[in-house]
Design brief:
heterodimer; A: alpha+beta; Gyrase A, domain 2; 4 strands; flat; B: RNA Polymerase Alpha Subunit, Chain A, domain 2; 10 helices; binds zinc ion; transcription (chain B); DNA-directed RNA polymerase (chain B); RBP11-like (chain B); protein dimerization activity (chain B); DNA-directed RNA polymerase RpoA/D/Rpb3-type domain-containing protein (chain B)
Chain lengths: ~130, ~350
């Protein structure tokens, strides 16, 4: 016998209007209303060819991966990331390149491209290793 | 030994990036690290990526990943723990409870029960076939009429107002104790409304390839929820939804996901000459004589031996809670999707803001 299931009122989609606690899923997904941008780019005013990227809803996983990948690039002078506040699900990634072209944004773009290539290789290698086992 | 710690923290990067600065300098002036290897660009390094599965059981997998950077290995580990979606009970309605455990306690225990579902995965807002192929092969769920190979949606992405079978798997737990002995209520009593798409994990491995049918034969390992005595009653309706470990640990498919780095013991040539038998006696060959380019230049430059980490070589152990097969956890660690998401947004931002241009 299957009874119709009505959730209690407090867990309806409107539930977050009853308290000011952020929703649990706010740590990993952007709000549906587009009020938060995934990536914002801020040009450094003091240092040439440098930007600070704020990447929303990401943490050390992506931050450290991108930092290390950027450091592999000979055009990159500096790259570092930090989590400005442990309760805010965003990271800052600072990148400086030697020249304007490729600039820091381009450097991040290629770093992602290289990283994805590595991950593809890992995926393929795992499938092969599984089949071999 | 401080220079080893430095290198362990930063992987090979410290050594690589320092190499440029040191060119043309005599080794003793170089205090930062232990120069090893070459500055091979990563694109060439990817060719060397290798994986070897050492052990695969029904609840754990051990494999060696070699040829990638520590940051990649660590990112994989973190994604396996926190960002592989599974189903877990998220909303509980207690209709009757006269057991010794109060409602919240039982609800919390239910939330932590691992639910097996191959259909819990990242998807778009549409239902996505788990395996591409003939949907008719898998048939439809008799209760809901949903194709069996279609994944669950995130509740937030679903077009229903509250819950529906596309985003939610409901369970019923109805037990009354009429016996004199203590009755142990386990996850065996947790009856799924969609038994072919999602059910409480019972430690038994299922054959793959579209066989979503839970093994009807008796046995399996069921998790104790509460003990009851005569006259007590428990009636619960619970809904499981898709989620990830970052939101709550109950959605994490891993008991443990760790990687370890094998040691490397380096002997100077002098020591190696006298200890050759000792070195060769090691079946795992953790020791090796030092090569000319392995000069050690921290204090005590001519140390006779040192212990380091084998570079770009990671021994992973992933243990499943039962919510997914261990190899599925590794396969579903979709770091790529996250990176592509960042990349797409990065390009969008730059296109919007002319001022930034190439800078
Ligand atoms: Zn729904």
């Amino acid at each position: 016998m299957v009874m119709p299931f009505t959730p209690p009122a407090l867990v309806s989609p409107l539930s977050n209007t009853f308290w000011n606690k952020p929703d649990d899923f706010d740590v990993w997904r952007l709000p549906d209303d587009d009020s938060v941008q995934k990536v914002t780019v801020q040009k450094d005013t003091m240092v040439p060819n440098a930007v600070t990227l704020v990447i929303e809803r990401e943490d050390h996983t992506v931050g450290n991966l991108l930092r290390m990948e950027l450091l592999e690039d000979k055009e990159v002078l500096f790259s570092g990331y930090r989590v400005p506040h442990p309760l805010e699900p965003a990271i800052q990634l600072k990148v400086q390149t030697k020249s304007e072209d490729p600039g820091p944004v381009k450097a991040v773009d290629t770093a992602i491209e290289r990283s994805v290539a590595t991950l593809d290789k890992i995926g393929e290698a795992f499938a092969k290793a599984k089949a071999r086992h | 030994m401080a220079y080893w710690a430095l290198e362990a923290l930063d992987g090979s990067k410290t050594a690589l990036s320092s190499l440029d600065r040191v060119e043309g300098t005599d080794p003793p002036a170089y205090k930062l690290g232990c120069v090893r290897g070459t500055t091979t660009p990563l694109l060439q390094m990817t060719d060397k990526i290798e994986i070897e599965v050492k052990e695969l059981t029904e609840d754990s997998i051990t494999f060696v990943l070699s040829g990638c950077d520590t940051s990649t290995a660590n990112a994989l580990r973190r994604v396996m723990i926190a960002e592989v979606p599974t189903m877990a009970i998220d909303k509980v309605e207690v209709l009757a409870n006269s057991t010794v455990l109060h409602d919240d306690f039982i609800s919390h225990r239910l939330g932590l029960v691992p639910l097996f579902s191959l259909l819990a995965r990242w998807g778009d807002k549409e239902l996505v076939p788990y395996r591409h192929g003939d949907a008719a092969t898998y048939g439809t769920d008799s209760e809901t009429g949903l194709p069996l190979d279609q994944t669950f949606r995130f509740n937030r992405d679903c077009d229903c107002m509250t819950t529906c079978p596309k985003c939610t798997a409901d369970f019923t737990l109805e037990v009354a104790c009429n016996q004199d002995e203590t009755l142990e209520v386990t996850t065996r009593e947790l009856k799924p409304d969609q038994p072919l798409r999602c059910y409480a994990a019972d430690g038994r491995r299922r054959e793959d390839d579209g066989d979503f049918e839970p093994d009807a034969s008796a046995g399996g390992e069921h998790i104790l929820l509460v003990k009851m005595r005569k006259g007590q009653k428990l009636h619960i309706r619970a809904s499981a939804q898709l989620g990830i470990g970052k939101e709550h640990a109950k959605w994490s498919p891993c008991c443990t996901a760790v990687f370890a780095v094998d040691p490397t013991v380096i002997f100077s040539e002098k020591v190696y000459a006298t200890m050759r038998d000792f070195v060769d006696a090691c079946p795992k060959k953790v020791a090796r004589p030092h090569e000319p380019r392995d000069y050690l230049v921290a204090d005590g430059a001519n140390e006779e031996s040192c212990v380091g980490e084998r570079e770009r070589h990671f021994r992973f152990t992933v243990e499943s809670t039962g919510a997914l097969k261990p190899e599925e956890i590794v396969e579903r660690a979709v770091l790529k999707k996250k990176l592509r998401d960042v990349q797409a947004n990065l390009i969008a931002v730059v296109d919007n803001e002319e001022a930034i241009g190439r800078g």
